[in-house]
Design a protein that fits this description.
Elements (H helix, E strand, L loop, with lengths): L4 H14 L6 H10 L8 H4 L6 H7 L8 E5 L5 H10 L2 E6 L2 H10 L4 E4 L13 E6 L23 H12 E9 L5 E2 L7 E2 L4 H10 L25 E7 L19
Parallel strand pairs: 1-2, 1-4, 2-3, 4-5
Antiparallel strand pairs: 5-8, 6-7
Helix pairs in contact: 1-2, 4-5
């Protein structure tokens, strides 16, 4: 995506702020709003597009107060920023792209940052998190990094892969997913309605035994024009991982990946 002169100007200003050792709260917000992932990264091939700031603020309503959370595919920390500042959470961010991590560490230095693929988390001694959050890349993403993780989901849709990984390390998960990857429609509709799951979604639900719920009424269609380069109709969903067979792992265990 070719950026406009105005977006390039704002992105460059954000980079100037990032040269500082410590940013003010307003400078951090400026970076979140104006540092553009398309300026130095080809995001279409990675399926990576940052959550609009106002949607991230709304998403914080589904995050538990003072929870120990993990943000999978965290980007520059958009969701985690508001989890920390609005919900007083302890945050761990997992992000593969080192450029995003560079920015994220300045925007949210209070978080623990791991620069790696979420498929490689078996290398780390992670605690059991109360909640996993994510706006993951959508669709079939060729990261080239698929670790030896014992997952129930055998497909290749990255948003479903992310959820299955989250079920290994958290008690509950809240996610922003494309509407067609959920069993209901709320955003952009007059009323909530259950829909027939797609074949890809049916495969995921059958293999994992997970159930998607609408946690609160966040109509993401309000932010359709606020994404960079895309306009995805999304839904915010919640999954209780403790209600599945995958949650037989003891909370006291530190390494939550099965080998």
């Amino acid at each position: 995506m070719k950026l406009s002169k105005e977006k390039i100007k704002l992105h460059n200003q954000a980079e100037e702020y990032l040269k500082k050792d410590v940013l003010t709260f307003d400078e951090k917000l400026f970076v979140l709003e104006n540092w553009n992932e398309a300026a130095t990264n080809i995001n279409s091939s990675a399926g990576a597009f940052f959550t609009p700031v106002d949607l991230a603020k709304d998403f914080s309503l589904v995050i538990y107060e003072k929870a120990n959370i993990v943000d999978l595919c965290a980007g520059i920390g958009m969701l985690s920023f508001f989890a920390y500042h609005y919900r007083n959470c302890k945050v761990t961010c997992i992000e593969l792209n080192p450029d995003y991590v560079r920015v994220g560490k300045k925007v949210l230095p209070e978080a623990s940052w791991i620069n790696d693929s979420i498929t490689e988390l078996q290398k780390y001694n992670l605690p059991k998190f109360q909640q996993a959050i994510s706006n993951p890349p959508f669709g079939k993403i060729k990261t080239g990094l698929y670790g030896d993780i014992d997952l129930k989901y055998k497909g290749s849709e990255f948003e479903f892969l992310t959820i299955d990984i989250a079920s290994k390390i958290a008690e509950e998960g809240s996610f922003i997913l494309p509407q067609q990857s959920t069993p209901f429609k709320y955003s952009g509709e007059r009323n909530y309605q259950e829909v027939q799951p797609t074949s890809k979604l049916s495969k995921f639900l059958k293999e994992t035994g997970l159930e998607m719920q609408l946690p609160i009424g966040i109509d993401t269609s309000v932010y359709l024009n606020d994404w960079n380069g895309v306009s995805p109709m999304c839904e915010v969903i919640d999954i209780d991982f403790t209600q599945t067979e995958q949650s037989s792992t003891s909370p006291e265990e530190i390494n939550l990946f099965n080998y």
